[in-house]
């Protein structure tokens, strides 16, 4: 009898302990100070470890959500306080620990998680606001749509293509009528690659995306048939007389007869890939293997012919750059240049003089392209072989590293493989597909 009473007492005690632990863990303000200290510590390694331990189970994520929210606020506030005022430059993306914490918070899809992320949209560190917008979009916090759209007035929006792309993607991921309407309105303010991406998204919109609100859907459909003037043109009209050559017909994807198809100009292409970007870079491998002959011409000679054709056909309002690599990586100019007739001729003269080099430093070329210009939208890489020199040589590791660095730059990588196969072909295909680009195989 005594033993039974003892067992009952022990069981009751355990139940009471578990109940109290659960209740107190859920009470706001009662934070686990040990966990919070690790999540906000000075050591990035410790912050990463603490975040990964919580990430191991959904139960842990919900249990330590208050600590995660508090840690995210403190860490992001610290980053904001460390900002250096430097016009024309954006801060580096937040460390992995903070990135992990924000994505963990968003994964709970709880109201307090959404409130925290919306609050972080106003952080002066552009990397934090980009992260918060991305997490809100991925987890479809539709109450954040207007707050995300308001970031269009942030100075970073005009400074970098990656920031603009990130906001567009965040809204697109919401799959919400309001987000669709905002993107429809925004599309007239963009050109190049981003305009193409928005038009492609809007072309896929269906009645079901508006739920049961068919009147709203038909009103949106009607708005798609009305061409509008770009924001940049509206500004120019208010400050100076409009130039006849600056008038551009905008596409109207919902129309049965799109104005975008009424162009008396041929499509700009490079190896069969349409050039949507208005700020793009061509990267040419001129290593020793490009000296191999095929049908009376070397691989490099063939590459030159195609590149010269593409540059010749560029629209005057396009900006371009040329990077060429072997063991050493170099660029034709230090920045993007307008596709004026003068610049095109200079570029063609340079291309014709390009000679053969030595080894193949693909990684450095790709990394340098990401860091080349904040306005760069698309890269076209041509190579005929496996990387043989550079900080990273293994194709799989190059892809991992470049995609990580491109996470919030959103450069569109298009790849052309000359007589490639096996790991090299897989490498080029993966880099293109994972960044939204295309792959072409040449034989």
Automatic annotation (TrEMBL):
PANTHER family: VON WILLEBRAND FACTOR A DOMAIN-CONTAINING PROTEIN 3A
SUPFAM superfamilies (UniProt xref): ARM repeat, vWA-like
Spans annotated as Disordered: 228-257
Alphabetical list of PROSITE patterns matching this protein: VWFA
Compositionally biased region (Basic and acidic residues): 232-243
Name of the featured protein: von Willebrand factor type A domain protein
Polar residues bias spans: 247-257
Residue ranges of every copy of the VWFA domain listed in the record: 279-443
């Amino acid at each position: 009898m005594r033993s039974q009473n003892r067992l009952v007492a022990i069981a009751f005690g355990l139940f009471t302990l578990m109940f109290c632990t659960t209740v107190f863990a859920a009470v706001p303000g009662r934070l686990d100070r040990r966990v919070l200290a690790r999540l906000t510590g000075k050591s990035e390694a410790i912050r990463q470890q603490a975040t990964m331990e919580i990430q191991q189970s959904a139960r842990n994520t919900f249990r330590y959500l208050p600590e995660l929210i508090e840690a995210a606020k403190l860490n992001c506030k610290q980053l904001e306080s460390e900002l250096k005022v430097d016009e024309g430059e954006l801060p580096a993306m937040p460390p992995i620990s903070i990135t992990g914490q924000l994505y963990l918070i968003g994964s709970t899809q709880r109201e307090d998680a959404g409130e925290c992320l919306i609050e972080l949209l106003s952080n002066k560190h552009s990397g934090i606001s980009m992260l918060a917008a991305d997490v809100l979009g991925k987890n479809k916090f539709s109450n954040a749509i207007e707050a995300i759209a308001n970031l269009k007035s942030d100075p970073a929006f005009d400074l970098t293509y990656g920031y603009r792309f990130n906001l567009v993607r965040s809204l697109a991921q919401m799959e919400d009528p309001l987000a669709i309407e905002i993107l429809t309105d925004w599309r007239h303010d963009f050109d190049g690659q981003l305009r193409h991406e928005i038009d492609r998204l809007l072309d896929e919109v269906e009645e079901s995306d508006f739920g049961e609100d068919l009147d709203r859907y038909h009103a949106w459909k009607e708005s798609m048939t009305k061409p509008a003037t770009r924001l940049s043109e509206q500004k120019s009209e208010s400050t100076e007389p409009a130039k006849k050559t600056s008038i551009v017909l905008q596409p109207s994807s919902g129309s049965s007869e799109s104005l975008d198809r009424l162009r008396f100009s041929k499509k700009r292409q490079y190896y069969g890939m349409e050039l949507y970007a208005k700020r793009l870079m061509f990267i040419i491998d001129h290593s020793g293997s490009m000296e191999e002959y095929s049908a009376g011409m070397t691989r490099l000679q063939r590459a030159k012919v195609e590149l010269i054709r593409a540059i010749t056909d560029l629209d005057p309002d396009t900006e371009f750059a040329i990077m060429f690599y072997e063991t050493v990586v170099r660029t034709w100019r230090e920045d993007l240049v307008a596709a004026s007739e003068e610049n095109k001729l200079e570029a063609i003269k340079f291309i014709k003089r390009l000679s053969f080099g030595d080894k193949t430093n693909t990684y450095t070329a790709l990394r340098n392209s990401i860091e080349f210009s904040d306005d760069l939208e698309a890269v076209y890489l041509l190579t005929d072989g496996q990387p043989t020199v550079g900080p990273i040589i293994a194709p799989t590791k190059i892809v991992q590293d470049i995609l990580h660095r491109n996470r919030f730059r959103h450069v569109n990588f298009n790849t052309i493989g000359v007589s490639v196969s096996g790991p090299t072909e897989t490498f080029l295909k993966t880099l293109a597909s994972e960044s939204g680009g295309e792959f072409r195989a040449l034989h």
